[in-house]
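User: Can you help me understand a structure? I only have the sequence.
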Amino acid sequence: MILGTLGAMSQKLDLKRLLAYSAIGNAGYMLLGVSSGTLAGLQGLLLFAVIYIVMTMNAFATILALKPRSTGIGATHNVTGTTFH
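Assistant: Let's start by predicting it. Here is the structure, written out as tokens:
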């Protein structure tokens, strides 16, 4: 969990890599629920997993939405927004 967190902190510009390192740390937190060996631990794991999945999907969707779009190979845009090939 510590290595995943430190790896995530070292990523300054690559948000996808930051989320990947963060996933390593979060997997450690999920394993804590499994290692408890109790029903409450498993319930906590399931709740954490559902929240984490929703959060991660939203984070990746935001990153992809902010990514500049390309309309194809060799396409250029003029000031009016029309595409020329």
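Now, to help you interpret it: The chain has one domain: 2-66. The chain has three helices and two strands. Let me know which part you'd like to focus on.
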